[in-house]
Amino acid sequence: MDSRIQGIAPLWNVFPSLEGKESSSSLPGSAVFADVFRTAIDNVRQTDDEKTKMQYLLSTGQLDNPAELSLASYKADVALDMLIQLRSKALDAYSELMRISM
Question: How many domains does the chain have?
Answer without folding.
Answer: 1
